[in-house]
Fold these 3 entries.
Entry 1:
Amino acid sequence: MSLNNKIEYNTSIYYFLIANQATQKEIGTFIDNSDNLNNINDLNTIVSNAREILKSDNTSIKGKKNKLSLENHNIYYMITTTDFFYLAAIRKNSQYCKKENLIFELMEDIDHQGIKKLVDKNGELTNVGKQNLKFSIEKYQESNKSKLTKTNFFDLISSSNINQNNKYTMVNSQINEVKNDIDSNTNNMITNINDTDDLDNKSLKIIEQSMKFQNDSNILDKKLKCQKIRNWLIIGICILLILIIIIYIFVK
């Protein structure tokens, strides 16, 4: 495979966007970072046009497939009947511009895969969703490579290796994300167990303090009763002495 063919092939799908047409919210994007012809101005123009299309009147384009021609790119977009928006930017020197039906086939395939549902709480693609989108685009380009460029035996071997590496990358990414989730859940469980032990210790301390308070209350109650009885005895003795003195005075 020549260098020119490789560059042209790698830059076939330069930018890809998934969004929700009803809410006009972007769900996820794919940008070919390996593009040696990458131009930031081109990317800004594409993103700007993509957002303008997304904000256009959805009642007139829902369920349709359309094309927008720019200076260096062609933009293809499709809006499904369920309000999901797909857009791809293709360089005009790409062979895909001669096989436009393949672009829309890719969008339909990605829609059927349900990648749009692999989102986080903010409604944006998770790492697994981004990897699946990247893998689907690269796999689709690879599978249609024979339709776009000349191939030979060595190209097919290289294609197989690239495809296999992409699979390994995606699987490793998924494994790492699951591992991170397991580690996070394990840490949360350990924290919850420690919190439970701490609550048990606090509960035991509260029970001990409550029992001590009850004992102190009983002791105080007994002391008050004894003091009350002693006071009544003293009062009784005083009254008795007064009576004895009075009787003694009258008898005398």
Note: The longest strand covers residues 13-20.
Entry 2:
Amino acid sequence: MDPLPEHNISGIEYGDRRHFRYAGPPLFDVHAHVTRTKPDTKDALPAEPALDQGETMLAVAEEFGVARIWSMCPPEDIGPLRERFGRRLGFNGPISKKLEEPDDVAYQLLDRFLSAGVDIIKFWGAPRGHDRGLFVDAPWRIEAARRARGAGVRVVMVHVADPDTWFRTTYADAAKFGTKPDQYTRLRRLLEEFTDLRWIAAHMGGDPEHPDHLEELLESYPHLYFDTSATKWQVREVSAHREAVRSLIVRRPDRFLFGSDLVTRHGLPREHYISRYWCHRTLWETTWEGRSPIADPDFTPAPDGLSTPALLGLGLPPNVLAQVYHDNAAKLLG
């Protein structure tokens, strides 16, 4: 018998959405990666990049009530994507460079994104990128933020930290990677230097495991927001801290933005995209209780043999959902 696919190892019926209960304005997904895709090939004549995966993902998004997505993609993809999908996509420009490259490489990349009309720029600074100089507060990124601000960009997204479990495994060498709390010193520096910008800390601020820490950040920095992206991570940790996360979002409903972190890749089946949106809507708006249907390599199987973490819906109130799903992004990004 064929193994069940990673997007549905429990054989759940994704077509059953009777537990969905949100009926407000359409959803805005502020964190995704819709790109042109092509197969990995070593042929002499590589395939031309195509939009078929974008077509599939946006069709699924529409099915789940998502009306607009902000995509991170290479600057050369923005024109073809905008031509095909119009206002259904907004764009977020990730600013990066290789360690040995001069700072001008990052500034030239920023200029390309600014010319393409991005709404957001992104600084990816996970610990695994530090040996390549990818700190969120690297001097060339601070200068990029200044230049973007001068060009009219008012929103910056940052990826600061990774799951707690990674700090017990991948990042166990604290002398090399620092501790998880160490990562936030760099974020605080940016927040204190650029109080006139709005900052979105991706993946629930990189710390859904510690809602008290997230609340302290929100209290200290009124220009900081969190997005809900990264399906497996949020399902696992938000469910494990269900009441504390729910209470935080209900108290601070104007500071959270819906995001999926879905990525278009060549050859992905339609059900892959369905699984992620199904899990997100189930997690945030319903009181559904069960096991996550998605394979999660960061989950340690329980003694009872269960191979995926619990998915425990927060059942956020309708007015809170409207803010998280739509209103906050509409105010922040237009």
Note: The mean pLDDT is 95.
Entry 3:
Amino acid sequence: MGRVTGRVGRSGLRAWLPGVLGSAMAASLLVAAPAHAQNDKMAPMAAPAQPNAITLDTGPLPDAKASESWYTQYGSDFTRNVTVATLTPFLPDPAKASGAAVIVAPGGGFRTLSMENEGWDVAKALAKRGVAAFVLKYRLQQTPADMAGFEKSMNEMFSGTAKRPPRPDAEAMMANLAPQIADAKAAFALVRSRAGEWHIDPDKVGMVGFSAGAMLTMATELASDAHPAFIGNIYGPLTSVKVPADAPPMFVALASDDPFFANNGFGLIESWKAAKAPVEFHLYEQGGHGFGMYPKKTTSTGWFDAFASWLRMHGWIKAEG
């Protein structure tokens, strides 16, 4: 089922992580936030009803003390302190269904998840176009349980005054990502195990991620046996990688004014091209970081239509007409 040869494995992830996860987690710990966004005040909210969420079999986060909680910011819903991973299906009209599926991984620096802007809204748009979509609420690093403590910790992180922790080595970083990679693998296993019920071709299950979710998408491709049929890296790092011999088609979107990833070259694109693996890259003049499905006046808003066109070109969305 899917591809089975030429994986990069732990050594490839070990080579990739220091330049990517180290800078992101040890320095800035990205939070997916739209540039120049309003309503940036964090406001606690009750957990929304999630009747279709399916608990994955990866178990509770070890040694977790704080429980999952939710808040609004930028007019969107976020969650944090996720201790148990879930997968929420958004299934298309059977008349439009192409048989393809996408695991959607929201971002948030592995400390929060932008569930609405980079999860549910993306999944709904995919389902509308005939692609089964599954939002992955993966386990997160623990943050202060109280909102005031959490907000203070985030403000300190971005103030530039907080002492940055030592950059962890690659093995430590892989251990830090182990729960999230396990959650992604479990998501692929679940979707494929229920492919008949959901009218999905198990060989057409891909993954798209945003910011930290893009990091998780790349780690799932480089260091697991999930074998995504295709991958989408939306404003994630573009550091060079050792490309698997059977690398899947990859879609990349980034704004040239992204404060985190726009000024470090395009090694990931060059790596994919050098390996003669399919890649499509959209570099938008403006959009900042975390634009996702937010309506903006920049051309970055068109990333989803471009992604849908790319899926259609490959046959993962039914041709129109």
Note: Residues 30 and 44 are 20 Å apart (CA to CA).
